[in-house]
Amino acid sequence: MRLTGKTALITGGNSGIGLATARLFLAEGAHVTITGRNPKTLDSASKELGTGVLAVQGDVTKVADLERAVAAAVRKFGKLDIVFANAGIPGATPVGNTSLASFEEIIRTNLTAVFFSGVLHGAGQCRSP
After folding, report:
1. d(Cα 119, Cα 129) in Å, to the nearest integer?
2. Cα–Cα nearest to 22, from 41, 110, 89, 64
3. Nearest alpha-carbon partner for 86 in 65, 60, 119, 62
4. How far apart are CA 9 and CA 81, in angstroms?
5. Residue of 67, 73, 70, 36 lying closest to 53 (CA atoms)
6. Which end of the chain is more exposed for a tag (fewer CB within 10 A), N or C?
7. Domain 7-122: which topology?
């Protein structure tokens, strides 16, 4: 098992690619923390994944939610080795027909949240005190 002794945080781990990755990481021996905005799908994913997983409800566009997820993961597993900034949204952005609000939501989710997921990891937020 290639990930035995490793811990991972997967944003958007409650569905799609994130959930599939959580399954794979668990099968490879990792402890996994998943995040998601929707409490119902997060709870369902957590039940499906079983032991070895921690589910933290939150919105990746809110840095405080990312910080809370990292802190919860470190509290439970002692450290983080892997951060998979997976959460993302699609967006129809036709030139000349995209609202500023829509564009900013896509950027906050698909770019800013990924950046801050990496910043938290790189700034030492992933080690227990």
Report:
1. 18
2. 41
3. 60
4. 8
5. 73
6. C
7. Rossmann fold (3.40.50)
